[in-house]
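To whoever picks this up:

The nightly regression suite flagged Leucine-rich repeat-containing N-terminal plant-type domain-containing protein as changed. Nothing in the input moved, so I suspect the structure step. Input below, exactly as stored in the fixture:
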Amino acid sequence: MAKMNLSLFRLLMIFFFLFNLCLSCPGDQKQALVQFKSLFVKATNSSADDPLFGLYSWNSSSDCCQWERVICSTISQSRPVIALYLDSLVLMSFFEVTTISFRVLTPLFGVTSLMILDISSNNIQGEIPGHAFANLTKLVDLDMKHNNFTGSIPPQVFRLRSLRFLDMSSNELTGDLSKEVSSLQNLRELSLEDNRFGGSIPEEIGNLSKLQQLSLGENIFVGGIPSSLVSLRSCKSWT
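Regenerated output under the current build:
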């Protein structure tokens, strides 16, 4: 009887181990996030154990679905990562401002299940490489505000057809705003204020029929406001 109970206990332990294994985040995604943390720590000369760092719970020995700033799907058995809230990771002071390269973010762009990506307020600098977003086709919310991104918005961003919220405000983005923005037919909020966009505001922006908030102020656009904007019946606020 004792042997039977012991065997049953072992079977239950194996079952729970396999069950928890199935419910943990995918190994390749955990590896990508750990790699990002390593690159970020190195780029900012931070301590991986600093509680202010924001990623101290991230380690390869635990389930990444339990980490802070990480949300996993509760619908899929494989528990893929669907949201990363990585805002304000860089600690800034009046005397010292840390800047990091966009390359630090490279591992994150392999997490193709992402629906929400927030990398705002991190003083990230450099041009946005288009290939970075080529595989993030499930993105619904992309927040890149309050950084130091330069150059133009790559066309790959305008191919993220599931996007509902796009915020690239308070950067150093330049060039004309592409008429391809009209391909983001699911957009509810578009925030591009406080950049250095030039040229004219494209008429095609009036085709974003679901848009509820539009912010284009504090740029160097020329010409008037496109007449097509009057067709944005759902837009409750625009500046």
